[in-house]
Amino acid sequence: MVNVVITGGAGFIGQALAKALLQRGQLTGPDGQPRDIQRLSLFDAVAPNDFGDPRVEALVGDVGDQAEMRMLIGQDTDSVFHLAAVVSSGAEADFDLGYRTNLAGTRNLLEACRAQEGLITRVVFASSVAVYGGALPDPVTDSTPQRPTTSYGAQKLMGELMVNDYTRKGYIDGRSVRLPTIMIRPGKPNKAASTWASSIVREPLSGVDAICPVTPESVMVCLSPRRTVDALIRLHDMPGEALGPDRALLLNGISATAREIADAMARNAGNRKIGRIDWQPDAATQRIVDGWPRALSSARAHSLGFGIDRDIDEIVRFFIEDDLDAQIAAVHATA
Question: Within a domain: residue 78?
């Protein structure tokens, strides 16, 4: 049996990961063998959905509180997926909150794992391509230096380094994943600088107008939620030795302009009446997005079997299949 913790368990990816794990029923245990999931603890600042499953424990708390993290990570915790974060624009706008959650929160979690008297917890840390910045090569590769130009990117990079160091010291069996933009997310726009990539698909397909705060030529590297969840589980289950001393893995994704994303939405809309996209570039958002990679090429991720979506149309179709009906129902419920 394995006991699993997901921080950020109320978020979209946290919930999608939890659902996938419950359906799968197993994860690799400390001995490297598949083990049934006995308990799945979902921890977040707001109450997570427990799916009505007796294996799920829904907990509300703050990763920035060291005592709470010590209570969350116990002697019987085998695996942690650390997804909790203040997103890009939010961390840029509120410097103190970003460092409390994204840096101190990660340190609190790692210290809680370290305190488990020699028991080695397997930790998957969700990092970001925001660790790159400045004058970037096209594409960004495994050898591209990390020089973040936002507080969020700096906090994620420091988290990666801590995961490497705590692993080196034998306190955890850690691995970090540098995620591109995950789209399409259901719900409402959040404070991430990348939120528009979902908005210009999600809102129009739901019959709602959307505002895009970047130019149509702006490029985003994207990965679907399906591929993201698959990657998190694959990264957890693989032996740490396959990654070597550098436990941070860059994932590949699909590069597309905002215009290409909008066009893919329209191509797959069928007979739906779609909302309008208003292009209203915002200087602060544009500056952040322009500092991110325009293309990714990780030979390491490819060699380890991590896949990507076929194209932007496939990402749009996944959203239509998985989330659009619920999205439309939520829009009508609040109308």
Answer: yes
CATH number at residue 103: 3.40.50.720
State which residues form the domain around 49. Answer: 2-183+223-250
How many residues would you count in the chain?
A: 335
What global pTM score does this model have? 0.94
Shared domain check, 141 and 58: yes
Contact 213, 227 (CB under 8 A): no
99 is catalytic: no
Q: Which of 99, 132, 152, 166 is catalytic?
A: 152
The domain total for the chain is 2
Q: Which two structure tokens, joined as six digits, stand for 96? A: 């103190």
Residue 121 CA to residue 289 CA, distance in Å, equals: 35
Q: Enumerate the H helices of 207-311 as residue ranges.
A: 225-237, 258-267, 283-290, 299-303
Using an 8 Å Cβ cutoff, are 72 and 60 in contact? no
134-181 pLDDT, tens per residue? 999 999 999 999 999 999 999 999 999 999 999 999 999 999 999 999
One domain for residues 282 and 234: no
- Measured CA distances, 97 to 79, 124, 204 (Å): 26, 22, 32
**Cβ–Cβ contacts within 10 Å for residue 273, how many?**
8
